Amino acid sequence: MRILSKRAVPVLLVLICFSMLGCEVATSARLEPGPSFSLDGSGRLVSFHVYGPRQGHKIATPVDDQSLMWSIAATNDAHGALVTGMQIAYGKVPTGYVQKFPSSGAALPLANGQVYIFDAETTGAPGVNGFFYMDQSAPILIKVPGLCGSSSAGDVKPVKCGTNEPYVEPKDLEKFVQENRVR
Fold it and tell me: Is residue 3 assigned to a domain?
């Protein structure tokens, strides 16, 4: 009798749940060295974006298209691949996708000591996004409490969520990362 691999069991369960019960499983992401993003859930990946901090900042601002570092989209705009078991390595375009930004050449390099945002847009289930800190050894998934993006005339500014007050970055970013690490 053949036993399923540890990776195949969650994929099988999601597919059974999705097909037989019609349930929706929100997209989740696990961060790995590279960085690389391991996705799971019942949706289909339409696009994937990574945003970086603007000059003079160390933390990326949500929804700031002017700070895009890398972006891909499904070649078939209406549908993408199932996210279950999907692996996306930063700067490497998976089969069935095209690089949207930069329009040519390689993804912009990620710098150590900076906080970036990834955003996986999906159909059929909620997508996922999050912050990650580029450490010298590996990327670290973190939360950045209270940071939102406020837009006026297309210019996104970092603000405290629910206010128009400017978001002030922590003075000791490494300490902030350790205190807000997602475990």
Answer: no
